[in-house]
C-alpha cells in the first residue's frame, strides 16, 4: 500500500463511524453500506459528473457492472482462475468462466473506451 493511501485511510479511521464489525467504509451508524446507497449517492453522481452516461443521461454503468468489469480486468491481466473465483465468491470456477468468459472482451472494451474518452475527467476525480 502506498504511504499516501495509508495516511488517508488512517485519517479516515479516526473519523469513521464505529461499529461491531470495525469496517473501513461503513454507513453512518457503523454497519455495512448497501450497494444501492453507494450507487445512488456515490457512483451515479460521479458517472454523471464525468459525462459517462447513456443517450438518455442516465449512468452508463451499474454497481454490479463494476464487479463484472473487475473480474474481466483480472482475467485480462492473467490472474489465476481460483483467485478470481474466491474474490467473486463463486462456488465453482466453471461458473465464473461461463459468465465472464463471454463478457471479458465487452466489459474490458467498455472500460478501456471509458478511460480513453474520459481520461482527463477521471484524472481530476482522483486528484
Protein architecture, described:
With 127 residues, this protein is mainly alpha-helical. The protein contains seven helices and no strands. About 6% of the residues have low confidence. Helix content is 65%, strand content 0%. It is globular. The chain has a domain of 69 residues. The longest helix has 16 residues. Helix 3 packs across helix 6.
Model regions low in confidence, pLDDT < 50 over at least 5 residues: 101-107
Helical amount: 55-70%
Tally of contiguous helical segments = 7
Give me the oligomer status. Answer: single chain
Question: Strands, helices and their partners?
Answer:
Layout: H1 3-15, H2 35-50, H3 63-76, H4 81-88, H5 93-101, H6 104-117, H7 119-126
Compact description:
With 127 residues, this protein is an all-alpha fold.
Question: Tags for this entry?
Answer:
7 helices; 127 residues; mainly alpha; globular
Amino acid at each position: 500500500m502506498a504511504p499516501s493511501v495509508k495516511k488517508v485511510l488512517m485519517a479516515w479511521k479516526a473519523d469513521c463511524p464505529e461499529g461491531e464489525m470495525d469496517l473501513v467504509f461503513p454507513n453512518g451508524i457503523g454497519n455495512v453500506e448497501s450497494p444501492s446507497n453507494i450507487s445512488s449517492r456515490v457512483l451515479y453522481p460521479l458517472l454523471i459528473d464525468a459525462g459517462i452516461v447513456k443517450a438518455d443521461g442516465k449512468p452508463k454503468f451499474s454497481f454490479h457492472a463494476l464487479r463484472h468489469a473487475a473480474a474481466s480486468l483480472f482475467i485480462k491481466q492473467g490472474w489465476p482462475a481460483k483467485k478470481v473465483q474466491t474474490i467473486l465468491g463463486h462456488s465453482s470456477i466453471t461458473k465464473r468462466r461461463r459468465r465472464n468468459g463471454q463478457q471479458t472482451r465487452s466489459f474490458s472494451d467498455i472500460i478501456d473506451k471509458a478511460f480513453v474518452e474520459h481520461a482527463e475527467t477521471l484524472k481530476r476525480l482522483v486528484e
